[in-house]
Amino acid sequence: MTTSYDANRPELCPIRHNIDISTCSDANWNLARQWLSRCKDSHDCAEVKGGRHPTRLIQMNQHGESIKMRLRASESLVAEQEYCTLSHCWGKHQFTMLERHNLLALHQDIPMRNLSKTFRHAVLAACKVGFEYIWIDALCIVQDDEEDWQREAATMATVYAHSSLNFAATAATDGTGGCFHLRNPDVIRRVKPFKAKGTGGMYGTDSTYLCSVASSWDAEVERSPLFRRGWVLQERAIAPRTLHFGKSQIYWECGETGSCEQFANVIPWWDATTTSTKELRAAIDRNEPWSWWKNVVAEYSRMSLTREDDIFVAISALASRYQAATGDQYIAGLWRTGLERNLTWKSTFDDTAKDLSVTKALRPVRYTAPTWSWGSLCRPVKLRNVSNKWKQTELLSSVVDVKVAASSQNMFGQVASAFIRIRCHRLRRAAVSDATPDRKNAFMLRHTSYYMPRYESDKRWPGYSGYKKPYWLSFDTGPPENLENIYMMGAETRKWSVDIVRGLLLESTRACGEYRRVGCFRMGEYFGDDSESGTCFSSLPVAGEASAYEEVVEPDERGCSYVITLI
Ligand SMILES: [Zn+2]
Q1: What is the residue-averaged pLDDT of the chain?
Q2: Is 534 left (phi over 0), alpha (psi -120 to 50) or beta?
């Protein structure tokens, strides 16, 4: 990778040469302490002071090479007591955790030898950087006490927001991975400014560039094992600063900068993560807070969770931040503002998602969310833009009633049951048929001549044309078994050169006027010369039977008079 190098401003990219064979080195502890004091002294990324501390903290006392540890109830500590935190992957290996049976014993002594390698390394790192207290979830929350767990999980936002530094075991897939790694120092040292001799082009002529092997930030932080784990998204977003232990380097990340051993001041191609709470403030300043939530959901829905039930709990701290900043009403992973438009979120595929879809079920085994929420799927999703700023869209439906019952005191946590009632136009019936034998892996709306690949990801399918499609149907978990009985609800229409209708694909629950979401669609109202005859939303047959609707009422200003319930 190359980046331009301004020799008059060498402080931008000084190159370090004291790179040790291990990432656990005195040079690195010095560097980490420098990064921390630079951030504390000259950045605007301070931790939150005051307020409630986590219930328990681990106190560490270093005597020579040995470290003594014990649990402390934080009410016995001063209110402004500094502490650090740890982000890590749990994995399947068993190691000492805080449980009811050892609660008292761990208040006396936490034996270092019983901890996982990752915890031992984190404790050593915390001492080396100069901390006396650390918070580690597995040792500070009573793991076999559901009440303790629910209460502490709900305060996760404050735990990480108050943390002076979050250590991240970024390269470790579980507790056996540790924080420190051996590396080849030569690869890291091999970054030199060089003079380019060229005849123009994107880098100009006679400039000086920095050249390094690759962007290790992307490979070792963004695509690391740690950032495949759902819980870590909010830990990283809320902690004011994180020290990442990568495979070949340590990395610094705070609201203002990203650094590494190779580029100790600032990584030239570093971009702030789009899900940080600092970005939320920026999005609010731009008057589009929803764009931040959209990023959060897009990132989060790619990650995996050990417990499917945690789907909302593991980002509840971010939801609570958003709620506090905007005052909006939280509705099972969505927000009341723009809800009508955002009900048409779409499940997405890409290369990383493809891996997930192979290893993961499409829906959780147990109920986690209503079908109209993205939380009912275990796959990447994309929310819509709530704003109508650029696209002239008109809503074709309105949500008239919302009911979400939470499973616990945490209103951003687990959902026990939920429904919404929608006022809309009459539903359309979509008879989707399997394609003819010569068009395998395809389906079509009956009475049209346009075939679609059965899975949208299948770009190799010969009939696929990403751009010029008269319609697309996107099924959340692939086409349902009964393709004959799909209902379509128009949610919004876009007045453009061609009118476009977007909406939901629904399946009847057999109760009067009650449906489950099975996907979403986008369809043209009419087409120009190259139209497919009959392929428009209003030409589809309407669902005329009385049982298709919960009730029929006086039309509202949008002409909607049919009421249905989605569960
Ligand atoms: Zn900073």
Answers
A1: 83
A2: left
CA of 260 to the centre of ligand 1 (A): 14
CB atoms within 10 A of CB 16: 16
DSSP codes of every residue in 366-400: S--S-TTSGGG-SS-EEPPP---SSS-EEESEEEE
CB of 311 closer than 8 Å to CB of 305: yes
For residue 12, report the distance from its CA to the centre of ligand 1, in Å. 15
Q: How far is the CA of 38 from the centre of ligand 1 (A)?
A: 7
- In the chain, % of residues over pLDDT 90: 49
- Residue 226 DSSP class: G
Can you state the angle between helices 290-300 and 316-326, rounded to 10 degrees?
A: 170
Report the Cα 249 to chain-centroid distance in Å. Answer: 25
- Write out 410-438 in H/E/C secondary structure: CCCCCEEEEEEEEEECCCEEECEEECCCC
CA of 242 to the centre of ligand 1 (A): 10
**Ligand 1 centroid vs 33 CA: distance in angstroms?**
13
Say how far apart CA 73 and CA 120 lie, in whole Å.
21
- CB burial of 368-400 (b: ≥16 within 10 Å; e: otherwise) equals bbbbbbbbbbbbbbebbbbeeeeeebebbbbbe
CA of 248 to the centre of ligand 1 (A): 23
What is the torsional sign of CA 207, 213, 215, 217? negative
Q: Which of 228, 518, 184, 180 minimizes the C-alpha distance to 355?
A: 228
331 Cα–ligand 1 center, Å: 33
pLDDT at residue 351, as a whole number: 38
Alpha carbon distance 433, 488 (integer Å):
15
Contact at 8 Å (CB) between 244 and 253?
A: yes
Cα(536) to ligand 1 centroid in Å equals 54
Give the Å distance between the CA of 257 and the centre of ligand 1.
Answer: 6
In the numeric block, the tokens 């302490």 are attached to 33
C-alpha separations of 101 from 68, 96, 113, 444 in Å: 21, 12, 19, 60
pLDDT band at 212; cut points 50, 70, 90: low
Please tell me the predicted confidence (pLDDT) of residue 15: 56
Amino acid letter, residue 401: D
CA nearest to 479, candidates 342, 298, 347, 341: 347
Q: Closest by alpha carbon to 132, among 195, 203, 74? A: 74
Pairwise CA distance, residues 340 & 400, whole Å: 10
Distance from the alpha carbon of residue 563 to the mean position of ligand 1, in angstroms: 51
Confidence (pLDDT) at 530:
43
Distance 327 CA to ligand 1 centre (A): 28
Amino acid letter at 511?
A
Instruction: Give residue 30 CA to ligand 1 midpoint distance, Å.
Output: 17
Distance 36 CA to ligand 1 centre (A): 8
